[in-house]
Amino acid sequence: MPESLQPEASHFIDGAYAEDASGDLLPVIYPATGAEIARLHTATPAILDRALAAAKRAQAEWAARTGAERGRVLRRAAEIIRARNQDLSVLETHDTGKPISETTVADATSAADALEWFGCLAPTLSGEHIPLSGGDFVYTRREPLGVCVGLGAWNYPTQIAAWKAAPALACGNAMVFKPSEETPLCALKLAEILVEAGAPPGLFNVVQGAGEVGRALVADPRVAKVSLTGSVPTGQRVYAAAAEGMKHVTMELGGKSPLVVFEDAELEDAVSGAIMANFYSTGQVCSNGTRVFVQRGIREAFLDRVTARMDDAVIGDPMDAATTIGPMVSARQRAIVEDYIAKGVEEGATLVKGGHRTGNEGFFIEPALFADVTDGMTIAREEIFGPVLSVLDFDTEEEALARANATPYGLAAGVFTRDMARAHRMAAGFQAGATYINTYNLTPVEAPFGGSKTSGVGRENGKAAIEFYSELKSVYVANGPCEAPF
Ligand SMILES: NC(=O)C1=CN([C@@H]2O[C@H](COP(=O)(O)OP(=O)(O)OC[C@H]3O[C@@H](n4cnc5c(N)ncnc54)[C@H](O)[C@@H]3O)[C@@H](O)[C@H]2O)C=CC1
Fold first, then answer.
1. Predicted TM-score (pTM) of this structure
2. pLDDT tens across 5-55, in order?
3. Share of the chain above pLDDT 70, in %
4. Cβ contacts of 138 within 8 Å, gap of 6 or more
5. Cα of 1 to ligand 1 centre, how many Å?
6. Over the stretch 102-152, which tens digit does the pLDDT of each residue have?
7. Residue 459 C-beta-side C-alpha neighbours within 13 Å
8. Alpha-carbon span 407 to 377, nearest angstrom
9. How many whole angstroms from 230 Cα to the centroid of ligand 1?
10. Is the pLDDT of residue 99 over 60?
11. What is the rounded average pLDDT for all residues in the chain?
């Protein structure tokens, strides 16, 4: 195994790497080859206790610093990440299998954006003054929640860790972060870098493990808030467990988002949108627009262009700069995707292109394009989390909107049209948290991101995230005698 990918130890606690070899073995597999590239241990109760105790102690010290001081640390961390983008991207590629052409522009860089942006916001956080009668007034204090737990999915390990850490730390909280058991390496680097940037030891800790470890963290009374990125069923379990302790939550969950392409759309842009909405990160993106509703008049032209553009996809070695499609994250995830493709064929959809295993090793699968998909088919109802694009035909705007919204999910939605009045009508009508006009799947840190309906609770990014990592205390100040009925 390449020596550089084996971290010094499994966990990062109180400013340093930590190990407890009595924890279960956690092998790290490179999805492009199936080879083991590192070997870690799952956190034991002793490790979790150390992490939570360190976070609790560090949080008090951190919250006592001014917003300007906290912001400076976050911005310094952003600079370090940018300077090390290449190494961090190589690590992300090995953790996830995503091509280096993606990881160099969308992962560590996105983490740096979040740390920089929330680092700039930190000094501006404040309360307000509310005048009342008789000279009384109330002022509010924006206070941190305390120790926050972050639970990550495997598709964007660096980005997810930073999207949670940046607003949490900006507000004066500490964090214990548990990456997905599939991709445990990247968050450790973020922890190292934050310490290097001046964060107090214990402010951001990383512990490894699967659902059991997550469950123990959520249940711990020292934890004030839980932020999960994961599937809807996991979200339901974590939300329920957090409710036991009346803990704050952010739930960034899955989806089955619609992308609506009208006849008047700029065809090549709409095809690009559909590719971004289905094949980026080999389809392993929560906000993917996997139900592509195409107005009947351009159906053939749209399918022809998607098919032709799929010929340009380069599937293969993720470390090759020319590669645009890497493997799935795991053999298990590829098997899930293959089952869905088989179900699509079985239920009568037309597999226009792709969908077959490829490569001699690793977990590769060709992107798949389905036509003649109808609303009731399994591939149109369930989140696949793989490179499977389903085209559904429609006739009218009203019909497209109704069908787009006919899902329990509500993470994202997109529309391609040259008619801007219609574009805004659709954006207003979509039951989804993140909507797009004439583009898809861009997630700048400036914009709030999160789901409606079963796709989640709360928002990450943007000023909105502050509301989910802080709370307001009101202080009533009397200016006259204190009156009582007797
Ligand atoms: N809305 C969003 O921002 C995003 C959502 N996702 C969603 O994530 C899913 C794929 O990621 P996976 O890692 O397979 O999700 P998952 O739901 O299996 O796991 C997510 C995390 O929760 C942990 N976990 C599992 N059970 C737990 C429990 N009972 N208590 C506490 N923690 C527990 C896992 O170990 C992991 O760290 C997809 O559904 C996808 O849509 C992925 C990326 C972004």
1. 0.97
2. 999 999 999 999 999 999 999 999 999 999 999 999 999 999 999 999 999
3. 99
4. 129, 130, 132, 474, 475, 476, 477
5. 28
6. 999 999 999 999 999 999 999 999 999 999 999 999 999 999 999 999 999
7. 17
8. 12
9. 2
10. yes
11. 98
What is the identity of the amino acid at 383? Answer: E
Q: Record the tokens describing residue 261, joined without a space.
A: 């392409």
| Pocket lining for ligand 1, CB < 6 angstroms | 151-155, 178, 180-181, 210-211, 214-215, 218, 228-231, 234, 237-238, 252-254, 286, 383, 385, 411, 451, 456
Which two three-digit tokens encode residue 25?
């073995």
Nearest residue (by CA) to ligand 1, atom 44, is 286
Ligand 1 pocket mutation, candidates 286, 340, 383, criterion most atoms within 8 A of CB: 286
Q: Which residues contact 217 (CB under 8 A, 6 or more apart)?
A: 48, 52, 149, 151, 176, 178, 207, 223, 226
Task: Please give the DSSP secondary-structure letter assigned to residue 384.
Answer: -
- Distance in Å, CA 272 to ligand 1 centroid: 28
Considering 92, 102, 116, 252, which one is annotated as catalytic? 252
How big is the chain, counted in residues?
Answer: 486
**351: amino acid identity, one letter:** L
Residue written as token pair 């195409």: 294
Using CA positions, which residue lies closest to atom 23 of ligand 1? 211
> Catalytic residue at 252?
yes
Ligand 1 atom nearest to CA at 255: 41
To test the pocket of ligand 1, the residue of 234, 290, 332, 453 to mutate (highest count of ligand atoms within 8 Å of its CB) is 234
Cβ neighbours of residue 333 closer than 8 Å, sequence gap 6 or more: 284, 363, 385, 386
ipTM here: 0.94
Phi then psi dihedrals of residue 388, to 5 deg: -130, 110
How far is 452 from 387, CA to CA, in rounded Å?
23
Nearest to 224 by CA among 69, 65, 71, 59: 59
The atom of ligand 1 lying closest to the CA of 235 is 17
- Return the ligand 1 atom nearest residue 153 CA: 13
pLDDT tens for each residue of 258-293? 999 999 999 999 999 999 999 999 999 999 999 999
- Confidence tier at 4 by pLDDT (50, 70, 90): confident
Q: Which domains, ranges and CATH numbers included, belong to the chain?
A: 11-254+455-473 (3.40.605.10), 258-437 (3.40.309.10)
> Ligand 1 centre and the CA of 424: distance in Å?
32
Span from the CA of 61 to the centroid of ligand 1 (angstroms): 31
Of 368, 390, 147, nearest in space to 247 by CA:
147
CA dist., res. 289 & res. 280, Å (int): 11
Q: What is the DSSP track for 247-292?
A: -EEEEE-----EEEE-TTS-HHHHHHHHHHTTTGGGG--TT---EE
* Centre of ligand 1 from the C-alpha of residue 372, in Å: 31
